[in-house]
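Hmm, what's this shape?
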Amino acid sequence: MTWKGVFEGIQSITENVLFVPFNMLRAIELDNWWLANIMSWTLMLVGFVAFIYWMGQLKKFNDNDEEDKTSTSHSFLG
């Protein structure tokens, strides 16, 4: 097997298996704008929820005052 065969195999798997849901969404693009953009909305929702969760975790650890915030915590800071 050559490197060309490996890359053609990756191309085949990607186009024929992994992109099937996106091809189905492309087919309904002209019918309904909301259904055509469902993946974008889903990813935006997941990102928003992850952002809110991360900010809550940062606030929780910041409220514990466990972090050393003095300017001498590293020798190169003074």
